[in-house]
Amino acid sequence: MNSIIRLSVLFSLIASAGCQSSSKVAGEISYTGEPTIIYKMKADYSKNVPVTLNEEGTAIVAYPSPKDVYYKGQFAYPVALSKGWWLDNRGVTPHTAFLQLTYEEYSKLEKAPSLDKMMKMLIDTDPITEMYNLGNRNRFKEETLEINQLIAKGALKKFKKLK
Fold this sequence. Notes:
Blueprint: H1 2-18, E1 35-41, E2 48-53, E3 60-62, E4 70-71, E5 74-75, E6 79-80, E7 86-87, E8 96-102, H2 103-107, H3 115-120, E9 122-124, E10 128-136, H4 143-153, E11 160-161
Antiparallel strand pairs: 1-7, 1-10, 2-3, 2-8, 4-5, 6-7, 8-9, 10-11
């Protein structure tokens, strides 16, 4: 019986050790959950479909399905913020490039173009000039307002710089 209790206690300890909390400790920023990614671009590509390139910028490694260009039921356009910043709604990374196709045009396709065709449709293979991860997206109650306040205060440096 004693060994059953020990096993129970051991199992409980192992199970609780594997649990992670995404709660914020005073002053800490949680990077678990849906990220809040903001970025600046060389030009306004906000209506163009983003794809992800390999580190060398020579091949597309990820792209959306034409049915997957939505966020919360709307086209996944980034949200314009102050001082040229954009809030991502699509999964932009430091290796993002943009297609010539707009979200509207792309969403009407029956299937995604071939990788060769998409490579020929790239507007710019390195359009992102700066990018930050501001932590879990759920931490903001009034997302656009609060992020614009961080930008105005020059407080982005305390967050994870991605590019």
